[in-house]
User: Fold this.
Amino acid sequence: GKSGYDHYMLKEIHEQPRALRKCLRERVDGIDGSVDLDLDRLDDADRIHLVACGTSYHAALYGAQVLRERGVPAQAFVASEYDRTTLAGETPLVIGVTQSGETADTLGALRTARAAGAETLAVTNTVGSTAARECDQALYVRAGPEIGVAATKTFASQQLALHAFALWHSADSIDPERIDALRSLPDQVQSVLDDADVESIAAEYADSSAFFFIGRGHNHPVALEGALKLKEITYEHAEGFPAGELKHGPLALMEDDAPVIALVTGDGERARKTLNNVKEVQSRGAPVIAVTDGRLDVEQYANHVLTVPETDPTLAPLLANVQLQLLAYWIAARLGRPIDKPRHLAKSVTVE
Ligand code: M6R
Assistant:
C-alpha cells in the first residue's frame, strides 16, 4: 500500500534514502575506498554510448558527464534516435538505461548496437527484464518497485549506479572524499526530505502560465528532469534549459507569472555563471525559485530559496532534484491532478 502517503509518488520520493543505500551496499566500500560492481571488466570500452528515454535519458546524460570527467569519452542518446548511423562505424560499449527493462525504444537501440558488434550493458531496476536478459551484462540499480508512473526514486538510483559505474570503470584511484560523499548521500537526501518546505511555494505558483528550469553542468540533466516531472503530473507547460542557453532565445518568454526554477549549487565557475543568469531572469521580471546549497549569495536575487546540504559538486544535483520532485508533486496536488496515473501515459512503453 501507500504506507499512509496520499500517493505512491510521495511514498517513493520518501523511499529514496533507502533506495540509495541499497544501491551502494557492498559496492562502495568506505574502508578501502574502492568500488566493486560485480561486473566483468569492459576492457575494450574506450568509448561509451548511453541510450535511454524520458527520465532515464536524463540519468544517462548525467552518467555520461561523470564518465567524461573520469576521462572516458561518453555520450548519451535518446534511444529512439539511435541507429546505425549514430554508431558511425565504431563499436563502443553501449549502456541501456531503463528502469523497466522493457522500453521498446531502448531495446531497439540496444539491438542495433549488438547487431553492429557492440558489447552491451543494461542498467535497470528490473531483474530478469528483457534488457537484462538481452544485454551481455546487467547492473541493477536496486530502487525497489516503483508504482507511480512518474519516475522518482528510480531516477536517483540510476544516477547513483551510473556514478558508481563511472568510478569503477575508470578504476585507478578514487579520491576518498568522493567515496565519503557517495556514502553520505542517502542521509543527505533524508535531510532534504525532513527539512523540505515546498507546499506554500507550490500553492503560490500553481496557477502560473509556465515553468522554466535552468541548470548548468551536472545540474543540466536535473533541470530537464524537473521540467519533465512537472509537465507529466501537473499538465502545465514546463521546459528545462541549460542555464547559458536562456539568453539565446528563451529569455523572450520571461513573464511575471512564469517562475524560473534555478539550480545553483557549489561556488565554482558554473555556479557563478548560473547566478548571472538568475540576475538576467530577475531583471526581466520573472519570479525566481532558487535551489541552492547557499555557497553563493543567491538569496538576494531569488523570490524563494529551497536549500540543500553541501556535497561534492557531482552529487549536488541528486539533492536538488528532491526539491524539484516535491515541487512538482505539491503543484499537482494543489491542482487536483491524478498524480500516480497521469492521463495518456503508461509506466512502461512497449511500442516504438
Ligand atoms: O522503464 P524506462 O526507464 O525505460 O522508461 C523510460 C521512460 O518511459 C520513463 O523514464 C518516463 O519518462 C518516466 N516514467 C517519466 O517519469
Notes: The chain has a mean pLDDT of 96. The first strand starts at residue 28 and ends at 29. The two ends are 32 Å apart (CA to CA). DSSP finds twelve helices and twelve strands in the chain.
